[in-house]
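Researcher: I'd like a structural prediction for the single chain below. Treat it as a standalone chain; there are no partners to consider.
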Amino acid sequence: MASPGYGKRSAPEQLPRTNHDFRHLPPREAAIAAVLDRLPDGADISVKTLAKHLPYGQCALRTALNRLQAAGHLRRGKEHVHGSGTARWVTRTWFSRTARDDAWWAAFTRGDVTEDEPDRPRHPTRSRAFILLAALGRTAPALSLSYADCVALEPQVTQWFTRGATEPDILRALTSGLPTPVHSPAALVRSRLTSKLPPEPVTRPALRVLECGRCGAPGRPESLPGGTCGPCRGEPGPAQRARPLSPAAVRAHASAARAATSSPHERTHA
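Model: Treating it as a single chain, here is the predicted structure.
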């Protein structure tokens, strides 16, 4: 495994695994892709580490990874760490079992692709929300709920958790300033869960920058077809803009121009 926060990252929206996912690749590249596909996120898939565990040298592995990149299975780049409060960027290597074209990788870089969520049981026996409701009477005896009440109110509490609320947040909203007496605990809890529901959190797409798989130069996705920049593909780079002349150079050129135009007679007989 790589250091925490680094290593392989699985691309979202992949198709289910089959026995012929990499048949379109040469045998060596297909074998390496199959290994990468089965490694967990966070695994170190650098050339140096892969060479220690696979029967290929670093040069062969580097070539194979570049071919996987050109085939749309791999992209390299950097990603800003969410929630760090700093300008920290980490190196990423995104792998997709499903081959993607350049347009898809560009959309992924912009954050226009839905990220996968870990599988969760649809109907857990005792969810976090159910446990909070069942134990509510310990914090506020007037709000003791029955099993049926907990089942009925569980989706509302789950919605609070989905919006980023913590157990103390919910308990505070439900138990502060209780009336005396509480005639219907379930009705009061339902009313407060509805009226005090926090707003949905604003989600920001991850900031990503793709890099050339050969030289590591950063660039916009459209300038890296197949994950490779123009110079590495053998294309000429953009013409460099002429630098502005210095004041001394301007004065020298002006003097030469004046000298060239001040004595036309002399130039004629020169």
